[in-house]
Each structure stands twice: as structure tokens, then as C-alpha cells.
Description:
The protein has helices spanning 28-39, 110-117, and strands at residues 17-24, 44-45, 50-53, 60-63, 65-70, 75-81, 83-84, 87-88, 98-103, 123-129. The protein has 140 residues and is α+β, with helices and mostly antiparallel strands.
Amino acid sequence: MKKTKRYELTFEDDTAIEVYGLSSAYIDYRLAWELNSFFTIQLEKMEEKMEVEDRKTKLLNSFFVYFFSDEENWTEYYLIRNKQENCYLVTGMQFVDYFLVIKENKTYSSEELLSSLRTINGIVAVFPIDEELDFIEHLS
């Protein structure tokens, strides 16, 4: 009898994700407008909030998300405020007011994006964030 070989195929989600921390005194819709104007995109506030469980308190915290899908370049943009309703999305990064998450960025190099973000009205500082953040898995 002939033995059969079994092969297991596993697919990992290798979506390229870039995360930038933004410091800005602007309210979320004003910052979204500035980003829309600069990058010629259409970030819009999503109807449903992103819910993330706090590890310490086990409470669900809700955060507004602005989203735009650039179907031509297969790129997704997310803008999320770090502090909402007296809690932080990422507690170790209180110096970050917003997170800009870009999935599958094929338009800009990281250096180009950093320097461009720093020129936008209302953005005081930009930080590239290299560590994995738990909330990323909650973005569709």
C-alpha cells in the first residue's frame, strides 16, 4: 500500500501596517479634515465605535474611528483618538493624541510620509510607532 504525504498550508496575515502617533490640539473632525485636504482622501467618521477591553478593569471602552479606503491603491487609512471618555486606547502612550494607521501603503515611503505629516496644519509632532498595538486587530 502506498503511503500518502500530507501537507499543511498555513496562511499568515502579512498585511503591511504602518502606525504613526500624532500630537495635535485639534479636535478629531478638524484633524481628519486637514488630513483629507493634504492627502486628497476622504476620512469619514464610522457609525460604529471601536470597542477595546481594558486589560486592568476589564471594561469595554469605545473609540471613534475615521476611515477611508483608497480602492485604486488598495490602501486603508484609519484615524483614532488615543484619549476618549477619560481613558486611553494605549495607556503607555499618553503623549500621543491620535493614531494614524495605514494598511498596505503603496503610495508613500515612510520617510516621505513622516515629513509630509509634519507639515500639516495642527500637527505638532509625528512619531513612527514600531511596536505591535492590541487595537490594530479591531480594525477591519
